[in-house]
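Possible regression after last week's pipeline update?

I re-ran a chain I had predicted before the update to compare outputs. Posting the input and the new output here so someone can diff against the archived version. Not blocking, just want to make sure nothing changed silently.
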Amino acid sequence: MIADTYPAKRYPANPLTPQGARHLLEGRHPVIRLRSPDDSVLLELFGGASIPDWGLSPECVQLKSPPEDLIAGWRFIDQQSANEDGVRNLGVVNEAVEIKLPIVVHARNGIELRKMLNTLFGSLDPERTGTFSWWTPEFGYWYGPARWFKPPREPVAISGDECTAETTIAVRIDGGFFRGLDDVAQFGFAYDEMRDDFEVDYYTDLGPNWPIRYFGQGGGYVFAAQGQLRWRDDPNRRIGTEGRTFVAGPYDDGEFSETETDYQVLEFQLGKMLEFGAADDGWVRMGRHADGSWNGYGTRIRVTGGSIRLSAFNNYHETHVETWPIFPPPLPGEYIRVEAGDPDANDGEGDPRIFRVKRGWVKASITTFKTRDDAGITPLGASFRGGGCGGHASAAWIGQGTPASLTFFSLGDASVVTQSGVIPRLNIGTVPRWDRYTLYGPGTFEIAAGPGSTQMVKFGPLLPNQIVRLNSDGSGKRVFDATKVPATAEELLEHREMLDELKDLAPLGHDNLTLQANASAYGVVPPQGNLHQLLEGWFTRPIPAKPSGLPAQEVNVAVSISGGNSNSRIIASGTPLRRWPQ
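New output (post-update):
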């Protein structure tokens, strides 16, 4: 695939030629590639990248003529009664794609030709699948896991006097369709009891809901404009500036000023790149004076270009807790999510001293930083439940190192709640698509049986750390257990009856074999027993294919989670399929 690591050998081995670059920029020809099963060889069969430097690296494999049989066949499933005219169609079963690739192998001499033929046939395998891919600027990237289908029938040149050899290789894509890049979307709890999208412009501050305090010798100030929190560099000094830090919060809009518990979730989105030396801050568990201003207590998570730093503030004095390196650096459009406290820790009793920082493009779902305040120096308790943001503008020779702008800021309570919403789905393929839904416990999950359906598929309850995937096509294993973390002793005790019931179903003397047969892919036995008994209903509508004459249409699938928390989420993923790759 596109994101695969670069292979050890690529043919042709030369960089892109001027002629090849022109073909790619103009989009004149499709880019057709064949990658070996072990990803060690990449053959550029057609397109701009397939043009060799005939003087330096003529070794290559090129298509001699267009590929044959790119579209798979199909079989009709029909029914006909004894006195019925014609047949009644019940469905269609698609065959595998059996592609013939007429190729010509080039080399500088007969010895190198033998090496190229050896590499070519070594890159094909009837048991393991490589990747046959096709890219055009109009329709994008499509690929298929391809195995060696049939050996060449025509003789292949073996003479040492030959510099070229012609043959036909046949590969098979078992699935019957070309695949596109996955469409992935996520639904998780939105902790936005407090939220500011900075829609109102304030050119010298952030408005009446945000008390602001500055530290440092430098100038500059924070303000809101054009839907973002922004920093204005020192207006009175452009050369040899000094740094300045700001703390905005605790936020108070008259309706929300603090969370109900110590478990907080804070989130913001970066609007631009962090400049050198600058930082963006998230503040949780902030305290306040009677007038609403910050009293010097709180926990700060500082995001820089290369690290995340957790610090405790007590009466304005900073105490470092931990620093964690990050790569790549935070980029514009990324979401940063701070989770103060883990309600699932300690057998579900929770641990307010655990801190997580997550990041991501669609949602902040990738854990980048996790630690525990073992020393207990971060403020905790009913007096410290506010939240805010901040940043640092660094000193520079010209201007200041500017913190990234923020497109929004939100804060909420991570206590157990029920939330519902929709997951947007987009199918750019020409075939209706059945999605995969990955459920992260705890909670009970409901997913609509299809786009626009009011019938719900219910699964659960899942325990903390349990991960289950539902394959909506139903053609294989419907429920796949991907849990890595074993259940706690308390959870095993709670569900002992279900485990005993599962053992009762085992043949005499085979209790352990029966338990392992129901274990996850990582060998973890679910305390609920067979997970299929947690499933109610099934999916009836696929994601519709792209209309023939119109752009792909986005549809929504209704979802809900009950009894969950900040760790609960549903990830929907689906692979678009096409019969014809361009």
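Follow-up from reviewer: compared with the archived run. The radius of gyration is 30 Å. Marking as no regression found.
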